[in-house]
Amino acid sequence: STRRLPHAMARLLPTILLACAMVLGLRSLAFVTPPATSGLRGATAADQEQTLAPSASASAALGGAVVGLVASAPAAHAAMLVDEIIPYAGATSFCIMWGIVLGFVLLRLQE
Predict the structure, then answer these.
(1) pLDDT digit string (tens) for 37-83?
(2) CA-CA distance, 60 to 91, in Å (whole number)?
């Protein structure tokens, strides 16, 4: 059997995850080493990129992805079925049926 979280805990879960991701992100920023300045004057851009700490950029990217996924808003198309698709489908169906009725009325008037 699966255990369910209490309602209050389930409501706070995204906030807790966001706070943990922010703490981890700030922790990784504290340990970023400054780039070495010796020998960079004549180096190309590719050489300069290799001197930066790869773990810092990877953890920053991971932190940004986690924060973006945890704190994201609900999908914009979630209410689209009720707000747009069903009313337009109903109006279209009504117009088609009304056109069929009017078609038969016009046929009957031509006799």
Answers:
(1) 655 555 555 555 555 555 566 677 777 777 777 766 666 666 788 88
(2) 50
